[in-house]
Design brief:
20% of the residues lie in helices and 39% in strands. It is an alpha+beta fold. The longest helix has 29 residues.
Length: 579
């Protein structure tokens, strides 16, 4: 009954104005001085337009704004919203108190709630669990809030359940729902054991409200493991003047966020004993029972029936595997399906796992299905146990000889053999002359020549490319030969011979060192020829001839005859080409 009062007691009052309504509700109507009352104002319908409630002074309580949420709905072109304002009310004195009517004006419509009576007890807080106040042997260290984790035993066997308890001790008003972060349980399979429990506990003479969470842990291997710290984050009141009447001072106080962490726990996990281990043991740990049934007591040959094997008990039933089915010529088995039923009662994981297999009897007569066995390690008894099903009997009669045969081929007695009574294959082409396809391609006479054809094409292309490079060099005249031919043509054509030889000289140098003949300079030609490996004597001959060509160009009267330039230029080119 007290639990019902704690979790279910909600009292509300609603005021309406057109589509708008304002309601006020509290999470309980009876509380103690150590509790916090949650007051929630809900403005719903239409658009609130950003209106805020004007919370009046509440005698006997200190109010703190704890948050606001909004939900907007669009339906059939109509927009509506619901805004919730949450306040935490901390009692200042015991007795009968009344939360007065709360008013607010929305879009010109005045809205107001009804008063809500609340009882604040000064004595012991009612136990939400309905039991006596518990004495917990933990150290509070003078703290208002703290968390602990504990394990029922710190030594376990592989696969044995250990129960981890997380407890949150509080004697301060909370402004929001605490957020729990479970610990790191590497090396264990974990399973939550709801529901969370609430109780009142006394720790070193101080009363706390306690929230307890349980988790089942199953170690997966032997060794030493550490269960990490669990964490819990909560928002608590942070009054600067707890004895004052600073309601407006604390109206917008959001409190402070506190993160609590528990201590890690070291666990030693032992392996399953080797001594006395049955050959059929497959790693199951716990305390189980096994049963098997057929869905019918009689059947005909080839009639399907269902074998149901149920393993139930306490332990990690999720990890149970199907017992191996015996291979017999009397039964034909098909795929097995499994289902799981989990019961988390009294902090222990228990339940059943059901395996269903479709089978067909292959022979007629009174058949007996062999027993199925399950071997497991019972950590409570520290021993291996083997449980078995009872033998199943099944009366199988021959198949009905009057049953209508299916379409296709029928077998008849009396030596008539096979009789065709119909066809179920439709041929695509049932007539017409078939032409021989001839020899396969790889067996035809021309196929070996075709294989070398790609290689011949490659060789031809490669040879053509090489021949092109060599032939171009061979049949293209070099710069020297070209220059000598032009010198020969230019001689005897005075007075333009000198200018023609001058052009031949620069074209030849440009071909040797690269670049444009118009852009050559004595310095660039000297550098280019030196890079090509010409001797300093050759470079000097080039420079001298260059200078004489310049003199002949600008002082033709003082220059030698053009025939002399032609001879010297031809000698220079021949010497440079024979380098």
């Amino acid at each position: 009954m007290r639990r019902i009062l704690l979790f279910v007691a909600m009292l509300s009052s609603v005021a309406r104005a057109g589509d708008l309504s304002l309601s006020a509700e509290v999470d309980r109507t009876t509380l103690t001085m150590n509790d916090t009352l949650t007051l929630q104002l809900t403005l719903s319908g239409g658009r609130g337009g950003g209106a805020q409630p004007q919370l009046p002074a509440i005698p006997g309580f200190r109010a703190t704004f704890a948050g606001q949420s909004q939900n907007i709905n669009y339906m059939n072109g109509h927009v509506s919203s619901q805004v919730k304002f949450t306040f935490a009310l901390a009692p200042l004195s015991p007795g009968e108190h009344v939360i007065p009517a709360i008013s607010m004006t929305v879009n010109g419509h005045p809205l107001s709630t009804q008063p809500i009576p609340v009882t604040v007890l000064s004595g012991a807080a009612p136990d939400p669990a309905g039991g006596a106040v518990r004495q917990d042997r933990v150290a509070n260290g003078g703290r208002t809030l703290f968390v602990t984790t504990s394990l029922d035993k710190t030594v376990a066997t592989v696969g044995e359940q250990r129960t981890l308890l997380f407890r949150f001790y509080s004697r301060a008003p909370l402004l929001s729902q605490p957020r729990y972060q479970p610990p790191d349980t590497t090396g264990f399979m974990s399973e939550d054991l709801p529901p969370q429990r609430r109780c009142i506990a006394t720790v070193q003479g101080v009363r706390y409200q306690v929230i307890e969470l349980a988790t089942a842990l199953f170690p997966t291997s032997s060794g030493k493991f550490t269960i990490g710290p669990a964490a819990l984050e909560c928002n608590v009141q942070d009054f600067q003047d707890p004895l004052g009447d600073g309601f407006f001072q604390n109206f917008f106080n959001q409190g402070k966020t506190v993160t609590l962490r528990s201590d890690p726990i070291l666990v030693t996990v032992r392996p399953v004993p080797e001594e006395g281990r049955p050959a059929s043991f497959r790693g199951d740990v716990g305390n189980f029972r096994i049963s098997a049934t057929f869905d019918k007591n009689s059947a005909q040959v080839h009639d399907p029936l269902t074998l149901t094997v149920t393993i139930s008990g306490e332990g990690n039933v999720k990890s149970l595997a199907q017992p191996p089915l015996p291979v017999t010529k009397e039964f034909k088995t098909y795929e097995t399906l499994s289902s799981l039923n989990i019961d988390k009662k009294d902090g222990r994981l228990q339940g059943s796992k059901v395996f269903t297999t479709v089978m067909k009897p292959e022979v007629s007569g009174d058949l007996t299905f062999p027993v199925l066995s399950l071997s497991f390690f019972d950590p409570q008894a520290n021993a291996f146990r083997t449980v078995s099903t009872k033998p199943l009997t099944l009366r199988v009669s021959p198949a009905d000889p009057a049953a209508a045969p299916g379409p296709g081929v029928s077998f008849t007695s009396g030596g008539e053999g096979l009789k065709e009574i119909g066809r179920d294959i439709r041929f695509i082409k049932t007539h017409g002359a078939l032409e021989p396809q001839g020899l396969p391609i790889q067996e035809r006479p021309w196929f070996p020549y075709a294989e070398v054809l790609p290689g011949l094409v490659f060789v031809a292309l490669w040879s053509g490319r090489i021949f092109g490079r060599v032939g171009k060099r061979r049949f293209s005249p070099s710069a020297g030969r070209k220059a000598l031919r032009e010198i020969k043509k230019a001689q005897g054509k005075e007075p333009s011979t000198t200018a023609a030889l001058h052009r031949i000289f620069f074209d030849y140098l440009a071909a040797k060192v690269g670049g444009n003949a118009q852009g050559l300079t004595p310095e660039s030609v000297a550098v280019g020829l030196a890079n090509l490996g010409y001797t300093p004597q050759t470079l000097k001959s080039v420079a001298d001839l260059w200078e004489e060509f310049d003199h002949a160009r600008y002082t033709p009267a003082l220059s030698p005859q053009a025939s002399s330039f032609g001879v010297r230029l031809a000698e220079l080119i021949r010497s440079m080409e024979t380098k």
